[in-house]
Structure prediction request, 340 residues.
Amino acid sequence: MYRVPTRYRFLLFVTFSPLSISLAVAAGDNPGTRNPTVVCQALKSIDTAAINRDLKSGVATVDVAIYLGETDGKPHGYVASPDELVASFVRAREIFAKAGVQLKLLSVRRAIVPPSWLAVQANDVTGFPAPPETNTYVGFRSAGWKLTKEATNAFEGIIERHAQNHRTIYLLYLKQVRMAYYDRTVKDRPRIKSIPTGGLSLPAYLFETRIPRRIRGVITLCRQGGKGGRTIAHELGHKLMNVSHEHRKIGPQFEVRGKGGLMIYGRGTEIPSGKTGRWHKERLHLSPFIYRTKEDGTRQWNADYREGGHYYDPLYGDKVIRFGVMTRPKRPKRRRPSNE
Ligand SMILES: [Zn+2]
Prediction:
């Protein structure tokens, strides 16, 4: 379901939704202007206390808040089928429970927003394409991904202010979120392309500090349905383990399908540990989004990233895989225009 057509085989951490292609940006309102008329209200048919009743203190925990983006008079699909959303969340929770992390559902809220906020271009690629032999994670650093103004405006407008904003995961259900990336289909001529996504995790290994700190936990989702739980878990995996598509002997790639692993395309849910597991479980447990509740009710938070959260951030110590050409590529003397 989240297979990416082979012509997009170099894209990363994206799940593809052919259903979301047809929605165009609505004219008549300006996505660059903060709109004070955003209204958020709880989806009362979902009982978060009941969903969270099995949470245990002392266990690694991640707070997750959900927003359903909709426009006035057109409720999000999950408003009519809240059980489907709950089932997806519970499925994602089961996947992470096996790795020793519990997901707490803070809230499910409907966000009534201007139509243009539901269809946004997520990122700009402002850097330069690294040579193909470069280590993928080093290459990501040179690509310099950052949020577009329209995405920043929509995400900041929807996510309500809260003291723990920067350590909370936000699942934003929107209509269409497009992602730009370097396409290498034509050898030696990398080109920037933009495609719609089914889920986009906007992870630290790509954005580092180029995403506003308050909303760095944002994940967009543009699809609902039967496999929603695995999709949520996969996108959470990008954010919390801070890895691209990789599993055991499979090194990080834009698109790779296989069995077993949560972080590749397919149906797998495994979060492996140890060096042979590419340290996925260990990296998960080092995530700055994790806390433990102590007996007195206070929270013990994990340490934050030390260098903005790139793959080799010192936070991860030796819980990294070193491979390929590790040197940061130099900027070419004659820069190609970024959009050929
Ligand atoms: Zn992915």
About this structure: Residues 28-242 form one domain.
